[in-house]
Amino acid sequence: MKMPIQEKLAKWFIWGSALLTVSILALIVGYVMVQGLGQLSISFFLENPRKMGSEGGIFSPLVGTIYFTLLTMLLAIPVGVGAAVYLSEFTREGPLVRVIRFFSDALAGIPSIVIGLFGFAFFVVLLEPITGGWSIISGSLTAFCMILPIIIRVTEEALQAIPNSYREGSLALGVSKWDTVMNVVLPSALPGIFTASLLGIGRVIGETAALLLTLGGSLLIPKSIFSPARTLSMHLYLVAMETGEFGVAFGTAAVLILLILLINLGGYYLVQRLTRRMVGD
Amino acid sequence: MLLLFALASILVVVLVGLFVFLQGYPLLAKTGFFTFLTGLEWLPGEGIFGILPMVIGTLAVTLGALIIGVPLGVTTAVFLAEYAPERIAFWTRRAVELLAGIPSVVYGLFGMTVIVPLVRHVALNWFGDLLSPEMRTGYGILAASLVLGIMILPTIVSISEDALRAVPKAYKEGSYALGVHQWQTIWHNTLPAAGTGIMSSVILGMGRAIGETMAILMVAGNAPAFPTSIFSPVRTLSGNIGLEMSYASGEHAQALFATGVVLFIVIMILNGLALLIARKGANA
């Protein structure tokens, strides 16, 4: 059967727009890499920023990013996974679950700058005696609020994908509900929990708006979680906007993209391996 | 204990709403919510706080982002759900995920160094005589819409693709059995059947566009004035907070929290709308 002309046109059009979407990605990543990779050197990673970041390296923002990301995940993974376990293992679909889901979705939609305002008023100002004002802990608590919904949702999906026969097998052997969850359900959901964590880390590394109001933006190497710090994303923004020094900004952007690539592709590879080992191939 | 964790999301949303509202309340009570919303001037130094220019700016930039992002996103979703061979679909999906993972400051940097000069070139060479000086900088609605349009693509593509894939196979097969071609079937059967899902992808993309701060700050020009063309520099509601919160105090800070209240309300309405549409879609 011959294809009518509008079918052909539609096909070209659809392929063309998908190609455009992928090209935009390639253009952005390619451009940042071309401009930024030349900036990277051992000293770029190991030197502290000088003159508000317009010169020198990115050592202190790198340290700040690592501290901040670790602390945020340390808070978010237990709470997020705990919430997901409660929602999918210990309760039935009912009004309470629906309300929790609605609020979880709502939280995911709140702009990060608004969560930043809350973080500023609550963690930085009100809880200053505990958090030290602008500090890593204030930033982490704020970012925790932002990534909680992602961790809950992705973990929940992983839990729901586990066949019921796993649970029933364990329960039939007289194992308690709690031990079944801990020893059978959670280990099988490990790849999913891992994916959830990676998505959370990706989001946290890219976050800037909320951190401008809570993390402090200091260029010094943070001494503890109660010191102010800045992350790589914040550094990129502050350097580009305040000093107009695009060299350092592109170098930082290249590092950020490499990190995101590592998380996306490396994470995907690890999840595949983990899943394969679990299923036993 | 686990129940407590599960309730954390509710607690956080309530706390966020409560704190932002309480901090913004004194100013809102003083000037009145309506006056604040429709005030034409934003002069923090003189204690005049009106956000109408920024409401308009946010609307303009969001509309621009949708004009760019929705057609491209929905057609890419159609490609993934209907046209693409499995391997190509797999890699295209990875590309879209990567697009979602790129930090917004990187989009901003790309916007500042590529899109803004491009828009400036167009403004100077094609419309140079028509535009006032502040519209020839490249920073403004057009540059912000282009950057935001790209940033909302992943949201639109992934949710629309899910909606297209959820359409029962019988719809398509019935149409094919009648000898109707692929595009005709998509246009007359699949797209309308996935309508509610695509609609909620647009609403969520809109929410993303309204909430975006960093990339907008870097390309929109940030002048709190009424735009008169797509080349005009504008400030958005979220940009207003991001720009001034670092040095604001007293009433000025309260006014920024009040801006946050407006954002919070708008996003909650959009969320409710998305939920309503999804529920209606599930019932249909």
Class of chain A, according to the CATH hierarchy?
Answer: Mainly Alpha
Multimer state: heterodimer
Number of strands of chain B: 2
Q: Fraction of residues of chain A in helices?
A: over 70%
Task: Tell me what you see in this structure.
The complex is a heterodimer of chains A (281) and B (284). Chain A is mostly helical and 281 residues long. Chain A has one domain (22-279): MetI-like (MetI-like fold, Orthogonal Bundle). In chain A, 77% of the residues lie in helices and 1% in strands. Chain A has helices spanning 5-36, 42-46, 59-89, 95-109, 112-126, 128-131, 136-160, 164-172, 177-188, 190-206, 209-212, 232-243, 246-279; strands at 49-50, 55-56. In chain A, helix 4 (95-109) packs across helix 7 and helix 8 (164-172) runs antiparallel to helix 9. The longest helix of chain A has 34 residues, at 246-279. The radius of gyration of chain A is 23 Å and the shape is globular. Chain B has 284 residues and is an all-alpha fold. Chain B has a single domain (51-252, 263-283), classed as Orthogonal Bundle (MetI-like fold), CATH 1.10.3720. Chain B has 13 helices and two strands, in the order H-H-E-E-H-H-H-H-H-H-H-H-H-H-H. Chain B has a two-stranded antiparallel sheet. In chain B, a hairpin with a 4-residue loop joins strand 1 (42-43) and strand 2. Chain B is globular and about 70 Å long. The mean pLDDT of chain B is 92. Classes of the chains: A mainly alpha (281), B mainly alpha (284). At the A-B interface, helix 1, helix 3, helix 4, helix 5 and helix 7 of A face helix 1, helix 3, helix 4, helix 5 and helix 9 of B.
Jot down its keywords:
heterodimer; A: 281 residues; mainly alpha; 13 helices; 77% helix; 1% strand; globular; B: 284 residues; two-stranded antiparallel ribbon; 2 strands
